[in-house]
Amino acid sequence: MREALWAEVLKVRRSRLLWLTALAFAVAAAMCGLFMFILQDPQRARTLGLLGDKAQLSGAVADWPGHLGLLAQAVGVSGVMIYGITVIWLFGREFSDHTAKDLLALPTSRMAIVAAKFTVAACWSVLLAIQAALLGLLIGTALGLPGWSAQAIVSGTVRILVTGALTFVLTTPFGLAASLGRGYLAAVGAMFAALFSAQLLAALGFGAYFPWSVPGLYAGLAGPDQDPPGFVGYLLVTAVGVSGVAATVIWWHRADHTR
Amino acid sequence: MPTRLPGSPAATLPVIARVVQSWSVPVVHVSALSKRYGGLAAVDEVTLSIERGEIYALLGLNGAGKTTLIRMLLGMIRPTGGSVTVLGAAVSAGERSAWARVGYLVEAPAAYPELTVRENLDVVRRLRRLQGSADEVIDRLALSPYADQKARTLSMGNLQRLGLAKALIHRPELLILDEPVNGLDPAGVVEIRTLLTELARDDGATVFLSSHLLAEVALLATRIGIIHRGRLLQGIEAHGLERHVRRRLAVTSTQDAKARSVLESHGYAPSDAGDGLVLTDDQALAHPEEIATLLVQAGCPPTRLVIEEEDLETYFLRIVGAGDA
Fold it and tell me: What is the CATH number of the domain that holds B81?
């Protein structure tokens, strides 16, 4: 798989995707920082025009646990899109650029090529989550947030990274969708369907049983009163991730490659 | 157990046997190969065999089944019937033993647009587990001036060269090329034709290519297969192509009606061609001077007497038309 990994890394390094996704996560971290800045002193924010006169802020506290929790939620929600787009690009571009056919009759197996793509996506997702956590720490320090403790920082950071990992695992079916749809469109549709359903089912109280709602619930999106997703939720996330990878490998191996 | 010393007859014989065997086994063997999509037969019971060093051209109109057949040769499409063997290995999606010795270009050439020509070739070099650099193939395909240029900026012709470079980078024993001269200018067409001929002649490489240009493949191929609606209609040796091409003797006389009756009375079977008569009798084609003598003696001398040969396109369309019938 080493050869396939080398090729995938080169393709990713030369693409704009790397910078765009990093920028998107930086914007998400900045928005969380802005929210904390507003929460610290709503009257100051109103004076600066950052907050509407009638806006009411509730359910969030401007301290370190609140800040890192908010960041974890941002990773859980925007991660489905940002990680999803990464996976969709890695697979969809081979069909969009008509290069898939050049990967099919080589000494390197199709399984190695698929595995290399998911490995690159996984590594990049971890790096993005680390970037979000580091930016969060920097912004929190710059804002002088109260409630600093080693325990709050470690648990907040772990929450961000675990949310990122759970979210990435759920994007593997989008690799299959990009392969099946032989391009970006079907996979982007699938991603939005998953995102929309996750919001809806979480709001209806069934989020713990819908895999794409699980990272958000784990990050605390439903509020402090809500229980974190249980064993079934995590099991479903694992099942989706493993099935996504397996189905994509099987598809690349067995499908009729007519394009 | 006796020890076999390197270079001893006992050690050499199995090697010779393997070499002889590899030369006697067809490089490509396709047996009753079919691909059906519902009721549509994209490829229908095709059987063909290609020997080492041959340049085999599969000729067909767009949609004839050329690309589907090529994709089945490469394990990209699963046949609904029949079998394919490439370099002695039965082709399937999981069987990769032959691919290290096969180079291919399927349909339009493709490349990663954000990568340079050299980087695109490096990707292939890595995936093919090759050592060294891509410089040799870059030189061979005259891509040196564009080596550090991004693939997205390449002209269609240079993109085609890059596609061919990807197919040739590992000096394959078998080259499978789908429309290899598409997009090339006339000089490029001659260059690729020369390159493929040299590969077959000097390296003993076998070339399987598809095209819809009979005139082009007639200059390049050693054998031609005509495919239409998924069926292989005809397989012919390229050097014997003229034997398959129709010839006729066109005669225009001062008095066509009289000329016709004269020829008929001498056992010929002229037919009317609008602006004169046409003879397809072997005797007339072999000895047109006899026709001239006959007509002069009968007082209706020919004003035009010429052997017309069917051009390759007409021949191809006639075969395809017969396939339709």
Answer: 3.40.50.300
The domain total for chain B is 2
| Three-state SS at B303 | strand
Structure token pair of residue A176: 């299959």
Indicate if the pLDDT at residue B140 is higher than 90: no
User: Do B255 and B167 share a structural domain?
Assistant: no
**A184-207: per-residue pLDDT in tens?**
999 999 999 998 998 888 888 787
Q: Give B104's contacts in chain A (Cβ within 8 Å).
A: 105
On whether both B156 and B284 belong to a single domain, the answer is no
Nearest residue of B to residue A252 by CA position?
B93
Partner-chain contact A4 B71, CB within 8 Å:
no
Q: With CB atoms and an 8 Å threshold, state whether B75 touches A14.
A: no
CB atoms B99 and A110 under 8 Å: no
Of B68, B74, B112, the CB nearest to A105: B74
Sheet holding B247-253, edge to edge: B271-272, B277-279, B247-253, B302-309
A86-90, A242-246, B238-242: least confidently modelled range: B238-242
A101 and B115 within 8 Å at the Cβ level: the answer is no
C-alpha pair distances (Å), B311 with each of A4, A105, A131, B23, B209: 49, 38, 68, 36, 22
Which ipTM did the prediction report?
A: 0.85
What mean pLDDT value characterizes chain B?
A: 84
